[in-house]
Amino acid sequence: MEALLEISENELDDFIQLSDKLYGIDFSxxxxxxxxxxxxxxxxxxxxxxxxxxxxxxxxxxxxxxxLLNEISVNTTEMFRDFEVFKFLKDEVFSVLETYPRINIWxxxxxxxQEPLSLAILLKEHGLLRRTVQYCTDINSEVLAQAKxxxxxxxxxxDYSANYIRSGGAMSLSDYYVANYGKxxxxxxLGKNMVFTKHNLINGxxxxxxxxIMCRNVFIYLTTAQQNKVLRLFIxxxxxxxxxxxxxxxxAVFSTVLNELEIVNGKLKIYRKKR
Length: 275
Ligand SMILES: C[S@@+](CC[C@H](N)C(=O)[O-])C[C@H]1O[C@@H](n2cnc3c(N)ncnc32)[C@H](O)[C@@H]1O
Fold this sequence. Notes:
CATH class of the largest domain: Alpha Beta
Bound molecules: S-adenosylmethionine
Shape: globular
């Protein structure tokens, strides 16, 4: 029977230092349990049966920077993920956003782009797309390259379409893409005002004058200290009364910046910067 792979706290520490030194990737802000699972998965994938073997593998730089980042960070996403959030934005937040002549939205940790595209569809249906700029950032340039293309598996569209309808979409999702050889290519118009930039939330600079920031399902991989740092960055990037949306399983309630935020919807993790 095959022995179960395990790594100790010290070995995990070694991994963090090696990735920083050899690949220039700093995983020190990542929540340890999630990091341990991903490292074990990567060891298995590369047929390393001990941490010593894996260290040797890493030291010989048999992985590219991007591959290491891709394997360790989780990029799972979908269109209209947690549709209640999109429905709330459409029903309660768009009427505030439309008071601005130009709307700036930052998608932090946008992965392969399904989230900004979902929002673009709803913004278009409310006549707001043309005056909105969506800044889409991620630490991983491979997912950003996919986001720029806006091409997804056609078979995923069935689930996305059900989410779109539940979000209160006014058309049919198929109006927004062209199907070809098992792929769905999203309409170019949706991505016209999207800017894609590689950006690390842990040591990156703030953005200016954002009316809304969506950063969903990224905090679960960060330690509490790093989450506080990133929340500070978000508050500095928002206009007064700007919106911050975290993942439904995440929270700003225990953060050091809570007094600077108002809770708009506690269940959906929608916050608003105080004046
Ligand atoms: C699970 S995906 C979430 C995608 C999307 N926001 C959603 O909720 O569907 C997490 C994304 O966060 C990115 N990420 C992880 N750590 C990051 C960091 N320090 N700075 C920027 N992006 C990061 C990952 O590369 C990944 O694409």
